[in-house]
Amino acid sequence: MSELLSFTGSPASAQRSKEPILVVMHRRESQPGAVGQVLRAHGHALDIRRPRFGDPLPASLDGYAGAIVFGGPMSANDPDDYIRREIDWIGVPLSEGKPFLGICLGAQMLAKQLGAEVRPHPAGHLEAGWEPIHPHDQTLGPWPSHVYHWHFEGFSLCRDSVRLAAGDVFENQAFRHGRNAFGLQFHPEITLAMIHGWTVRGAAKLAHPGAQKAHRHVESHAMHGARLRAWTTHFMDAWLKSADRRDAVPEDLQRAA
């Protein structure tokens, strides 16, 4: 069953309530973290759907401000029906011109929907922890020096997509397609509580090549977490402008072309 999480700010803020954001998640315990906090602060309720567990996805995003597909432990290449349906469904926000954001698995699904490839690291590395990021665009800043990762696979870019940032382990870290569809390989939603949960539940995976030890995830969050949060707030503000005014690309995002 889907969840509708409403903004619970002041009465004045509630009066400015806007269209909800459709949020797709892939684990029962998953939460939208810092991204959800920014959206709620802007007056958007979150309609959380988990298709993996039977939640339907709408045939149209009419009545929604946009959609976000988050990450998960599965692969965009998995043969499961719900994976294929989600990838196909991303065509809805793309065809309707609604703002779309894919995070980690969601970015890989977006890339695959656009005809790009999703594949593992050639050396079998798990990119897990805080790694450097190299912006190709400065208007979406202030970029942090490091962002948080947890993934075995990355994606190529189709011809019409624009790379916004690159990484050392997986080259493509952020991209834009069209007017307002974005994919982020890293996790802008991460919080310290989420890091503790992921490193406990995924402790066995941290033995894979390339993965950082759990204590480094926590220590590096103290150094880099605040700057990632500042970038996330700036990026989501610009993304929401495209939700509020879809007739033109917000200036912050337009200059990223």
Automatic annotation (TrEMBL):
Keyword Transferase: yes
Gene3D superfamilies in alphabetical order: 3.40.50.880
UniProt cross-references to PROSITE patterns, sorted A to Z: GATASE_TYPE_1
GO molecular function, one term: transferase activity
CDD domains attached to this UniProt entry: GATase1_1
Keywords: Glutamine amidotransferase, Transferase
InterPro entries for this protein: ChyE-like, Class_I_gatase-like, GATASE
Residue ranges occupied by any Glutamine amidotransferase domain in the UniProt entry: 61-192
Domain of life: Bacteria
One GO cellular component term noted in the UniProt record for this chain: cytosol
Name of the protein in question: Glutamine amidotransferase class-I
Origin species: Rhodomicrobium vannielii (strain ATCC 17100 / DSM 162 / LMG 4299 / NCIMB 10020 / ATH 3.1.1)
